[in-house]
């Protein structure tokens, strides 16, 4: 009774946002002799508020754990962004002969999706099949999302075709997966097929479609789908307006994007203004960028950086300096760029300017060689991106050691010539790295895939993505839904992404 009361009280504290009282209560207990149910409640409560160390201590002191205990730990690590630790504790679970269930795999699949580790993803999927866990619409959607975010869009398509598709979440997962890979026409065709198969789209479906149109600059189609929402009795929400602002902003139609913000039936939130600020950065529009900044109540480092980038690109160094001074005054630090690459099941992480890797000398040698060769091909660094009024040489040095460049150099060092390289980054890839990757893909005859915070970028032969043509049948299906002219192939830029599968072996750490 005493244990149940304590665990219930901790849960109540957490529910009402009193995390300090919950932690204090646990610290004042002389002996953590909780029964299984009480311990599980406490672990879940502390994981919910991000008190991972306390939750882990309770877990480590438990004499007996059940699948709920393990799931609380694995799910908690995933929710708090500690994906590799979630995978490690899962391996510990297996080594102690504890059987995972569907909830275990749901958390692990989500973690693999965020980590972007292809070998990890395949290993988890193989175990899911081996344990004969039934794949319902929740796990099916999660698997599609995982493979999409790990760069295996073809595998995601295969899973989509082999599972039950009567729930809208399965379609949404596939549409969003195609969207982040820049496969806008494929996403649109899938939407049309969804309608023909009598599955009603929801608000999430349209977010995916609008995002796909935005990434590929399909303005007319994006506007058509935005208007189509009313036909399904779906009222546009902030996410849909944000996608439209992004769509128009990327296309350089800043005035139209701003008009949408002003005409929204609800108050635009910080996400809307950040989408507009990003568009201002792309179009180098400092005046409208200032308008967006003034509308964001709590500025984060990325907001300051975007505005400073706008000023730097316009050579307004005094204004850029004022932005940096404001950052210092408010105690805001620029987010550090981080990239990682999976090689033989091991995740290798890099930060901008990082010299901590054990093979840093070899990495630097490869990177320096690549920089020389790209310059010989005519590559010119985008020096205006450097947020400092320093010499060109110093600016170039700053750009040379961005995290994704270090990760690419390591991938080239450790892989066979001609093989594809995939990198994941926590922030958006900068214009300089984007252009540089294109040149590297050309001189090395390599496919280079970069997954940044927004989407996948695929470079091959010195170009972005692979140009292709949508078939007449695909376009005719789209035309049925949107009342567009049918017949004839229509040229669109699409991405083709195919990779071979690896064997099922537990990844290393």
UniProtKB/TrEMBL annotation:
InterPro entries, alphabetized: DYW_dom, E_motif, PPR_At4g14850-like_plant, PPR_rpt, TPR-like_helical_dom_sf
Superkingdom in the source lineage: Eukaryota
PROSITE patterns: PPR
Biological process per Gene Ontology, one example term: RNA modification
Domain DYW residue range list: 378-466
The keyword Repeat belongs to this UniProt entry's keyword annotation: yes
Residue stretches of each PPR repeat: 66-100, 167-201
Ribonucleoprotein is among the record's keywords: no
Keywords: Repeat
Pfam families linked: DYW_deaminase (PF14432), E_motif (PF20431), PPR (PF01535), PPR_2 (PF13041)
Molecular-function annotations in GO: RNA binding; zinc ion binding
Family that this chain belongs to: Belongs to the PPR family. PCMP-H subfamily.
PANTHER family, per the entry: PENTATRICOPEPTIDE REPEAT-CONTAINING PROTEIN (PTHR47926)
Protein name per Swiss-Prot or TrEMBL: DYW domain-containing protein
Organism: Rhododendron griersonianum
């Amino acid at each position: 009774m005493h244990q149940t009361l304590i665990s219930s009280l901790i849960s109540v504290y957490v529910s009402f946002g009193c995390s300090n009282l919950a932690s204090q209560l646990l610290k004042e207990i002389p002996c953590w002799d909780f029964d299984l149910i009480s311990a599980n409640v406490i672990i879940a409560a502390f994981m919910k508020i991000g008190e991972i160390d306390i939750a882990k201590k309770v877990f480590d002191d438990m004499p007996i754990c059940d699948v709920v205990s393990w799931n609380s730990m694995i799910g908690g690590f995933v929710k708090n962004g500690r994906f590799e630790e979630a995978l490690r504790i899962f391996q510990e679970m297996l080594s102690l002969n504890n059987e995972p269930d569907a909830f275990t795999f749901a958390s692990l699949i989500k973690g693999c999706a965020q980590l972007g580790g292809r070998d990890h993803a395949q290993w988890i999927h193989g175990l899911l099949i081996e344990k004969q866990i039934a794949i319902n619409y929740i796990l099916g959607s999660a698997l599609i999302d995982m493979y999409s975010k790990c760069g295996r869009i073809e595998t995601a398509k295969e899973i989509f075709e082999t599972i039950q598709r009567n729930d809208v979440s399965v379609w949404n997962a596939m549409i969003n997966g195609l969207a982040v890979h820049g496969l806008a026409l494929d996403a649109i065709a899938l939407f049309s097929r969804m309608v023909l198969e009598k599955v009603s789209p929801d608000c999430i479906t349209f977010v995916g479609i609008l995002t796909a149109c935005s990434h590929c600059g399909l303005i007319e189609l994006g506007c058509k789908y935005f208007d189509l929402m009313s036909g399904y009795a779906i009222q546009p929400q902030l996410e849909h307006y944000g996608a439209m602002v992004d769509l128009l902003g990327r296309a350089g139609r800043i005035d139209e994007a701003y008009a949408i913000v002003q005409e929204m039936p609800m108050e635009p939130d910080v996400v809307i203004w950040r989408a507009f600020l990003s568009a201002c950065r792309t179009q180098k529009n400092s005046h409208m960028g200032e308008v967006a900044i003034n509308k964001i109540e709590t500025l984060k480092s990325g907001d300051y950086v975007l505005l400073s980038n706008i000023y730097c690109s316009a050579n307004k160094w005094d204004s850029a300096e004022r932005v940096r001074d404001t950052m210092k005054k408010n105690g805001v630090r620029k987010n550090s760029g981080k990239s990682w690459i999976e090689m033989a099941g091991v995740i290798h992480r890099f930060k901008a300017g990082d010299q901590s890797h054990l093979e840093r000398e070899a990495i630097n040698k490869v990177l320096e060689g690549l920089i020389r060769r790209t310059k010989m091909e005519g590559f010119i660094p985008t020096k205006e991106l450097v947020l400092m009024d320093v010499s060109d040489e110093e600016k170039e040095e700053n750009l040379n050691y961005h995290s994704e460049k270090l990760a690419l150099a390591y991938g080239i060092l450790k892989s066979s010539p001609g093989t594809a390289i995939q990198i994941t980054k926590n922030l958006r890839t900068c214009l300089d790295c984007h252009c540089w990757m294109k040149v590297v893909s050309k001189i090395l005859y390599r496919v280079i895939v970069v997954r940044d915070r927004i989407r996948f970028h695929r470079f091959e032969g010195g170009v972005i993505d692979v140009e292709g043509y949508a078939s007449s049948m695909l376009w005719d299906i789209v035309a049925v839904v949107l009342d567009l002219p049918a017949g004839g192939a229509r040229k669109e830029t699409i991405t083709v992404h195919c990779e071979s599968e690896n064997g099922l072996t537990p990844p290393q750490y």
